[in-house]
Amino acid sequence: MPNPSEMGCCSNIFVDIFMFVKMLILSTKFLLSEAFSSIRPLEDPLKREKEYAVITGGNRGIGWYTVKGLVESGMKVIVGCRDGPSKDLLLKSVEKAGFPTGSVEWINLDVSSMDSVRSFGQAILDKNVPISLLINNAGIMFTPFMLTKDGFESQFAVNYLGHFLLTHLLMPHLLAAGTKDQPARIINLSSTAHAFGWFEINDLQAKSHYNKIGAYSQSKSAQIMFTKILDEQLSSENKPVKVYAVHPGFIRSNLYTQTWYTKFVSLTMGFMFKTEEQGAQRVLYFSLSPQVEDLNGEYFENCEVVKPITLVRNRETQKKLWETSCQLLDISKFGGL
User: What are 54's strand-pairing partners?
Assistant: First the structure.
């Protein structure tokens, strides 16, 4: 189907209806698959004691259970989330879990603000510690149209562009931590929802027409394309960092309270969802499992390599997204590569 920017007002109404129906059909298909899937156990995890991990949005949900698993593995975790209630929730959870002192550190981060991302990245760089693991986890879903103070569509900014920038900033520390025998890792959380919509490379801020589902789909498609291009650059230069795009599953979380139709899906088919802790186990699998060492650059569902939809595999679109992202963020040489 044509992109919304190519269509008129009446046609855009058709696009919204089409997107809604497509989401319901594909969600049902994916949920049935989820219902019959099991969580792959993490066997012989890599030894990462006293190494550092960075995670965005680790104060609740999948993020929190991922933090918990990393600390239990012996890692020190730097969590980026907003000051205020998010920070308070994190610190209370850390206290309740009885983690060792210094195992979890909070640094203020608002992923929708590129200035905040730069400050967060600089604060980590100033610590001068090697980062073995970066988990780009923070996200929003199906939110109303809003431009951030930088002029970026909010779902595109939070789910993708802020993490693109953060990865660029932390790349020197990731390169310093990785070795040939045990490379550092980057985990980009994507979603099966990348298959719901289109990808409008000439209107990434959705200014011609905004659809909540389409914008979310576009941001998650961007994460997969970013993973592919970045991994190719790292591999071509034999750098000791590997990148993975991971769908954690359909998870019972607060993301499904955003709209009436996500509430409906959650209420009627929520019994097929996985728990937040189970979703985190999939993230931990790609963070610590030696079985995925040679599967870098791929997109995964239920810990299996899955081909993303055709438009996401388009090489020209992948390259254009990379170039446009660098232009938007004034990056001349990504991560010093």
Answer: 78, 134
**Looking at the predicted structure, is the pLDDT value of residue 24 above 80?**
no
Q: H or E segment at 287?
A: helix 276-288
Question: Residue holding tokens 């995890």?
Answer: 45
Give me the amino acid identity at 161: L
Return d(Cα 34, Cα 223) in angstroms, integer.
Answer: 21
Q: Record the tokens describing residue 228, joined without a space.
A: 């592919």
Distance separating alpha carbons of residues 31 and 96, to the nearest angstrom: 33
Give this prediction's pTM.
0.90
With beta carbons less than 8 A apart as the criterion, state whether 62 and 251 touch.
Answer: yes
Which element (helix H / strand E) includes 174? helix 162-177
Known catalytic membership, residue 216: yes
- Residue 44 pairs with which residues in a beta bridge? none
pLDDT tens per residue across span 53-109: 999 999 999 999 999 999 999 999 999 999 999 999 999 999 999 999 999 999 999
Distance CA 251, CA 123 (A): 32
Residues constituting the chain: 337
Name the catalytic one among 216, 256, 285, 299. 216
What would the DSSP string read from start to end of 213-225?
HHHHHHHHHHHHH
Tokens representing residue 140 in the block: 């929003």
What are the backbone dihedrals phi and psi of residue 245, each rounded to the nearest 5 degrees, phi first? Answer: -105, 125
Q: Burial code of 161-170, b = ≥16 C-beta within 10 A, e = fewer?
A: bbbbbbbbbb
Give the three-state DSSP class for 105: strand
Whole-number Å distance between alpha carbons of 24 and 30: 10
User: Cα 99–137–93 angle (5° rounding)?
Assistant: 25
Q: Which two tokens stand for residue 180?
A: 């040939």
- DSSP E strands: which ranges in the chain? 52-56, 76-81, 104-108, 131-136, 184-189, 241-247, 299-301, 304-305
